[in-house]
Amino acid sequence: MYLADTAAGTILRCRVDPVSGDLSRGPETIARLRDGEGGPDGKTVDAEGCLWVAVWGAGEVRRYHPDGHRLHTQTVPAPHPTSVRLPPDGDRVIVTTARHGVKTPTAASGAVLGFPAPVRGTAGCAWGGRR
């Protein structure tokens, strides 16, 4: 499980037991954005197990290896991307962006954007554990 702490600029990873849902190891920081780089926001995992993260305030989407090193950065024409999705049967990366409350929006602010995907996404799944 990945968590984005937008305010702190960190991406955390927790290992989840697939049967019980318990966190087997506490959160570990796998990536830390520097001051002025924006903050990690919405994210998804691709078919190769890599993490894609929309970076609020930076106008970009980043792809990270599971160990935390950055593999790719894609610039988007809006300063505040909010989330990213790679459909399992598609060939596009889908990115949502913010407009409300943005002091200097661009024409693409508030839009849903797409660009060619180098890899497919994963199908969604439901957790079958107990609360």
Strand order of the largest sheet: 4-5-6-7
The CATH superfamily is identified as TolB, C-terminal domain
Structural class: mainly beta
Q: What is the C-level CATH assignment?
A: Mainly Beta
Sequence stretches where pLDDT stays below 50 over 5 or more residues:
none
Q: How many helical stretches?
A: 0
**Main sheet summary:** 4 strands, antiparallel
Strand portion, in percent?
Answer: over 45%
| Mean pLDDT value | 91
Distance between the termini: 17 Å
Q: Helix proportion of residues, in percent?
A: under 10%
Radius of gyration: 15 Å
Number of β-strand runs: 10
Order of helices and strands: EEEEEEEEEE
Annotate the secondary structure layout:
Blueprint: E1 2-5, E2 10-16, E3 23-32, E4 39-45, E5 51-56, E6 60-64, E7 70-75, E8 81-85, E9 92-97, E10 112-116
Description:
The protein has a single domain (2-116), classed as Neuraminidase. With 131 residues, it is an all-beta fold. A hairpin with a 3-residue loop joins strand 5 (51-56) and strand 6. It contains no helices and ten strands. Helix content is 0%, strand content 47%. A four-stranded antiparallel beta sheet has the order 4-5-6-7, with no helix packed on it. The radius of gyration is 15 Å and the shape is globular.
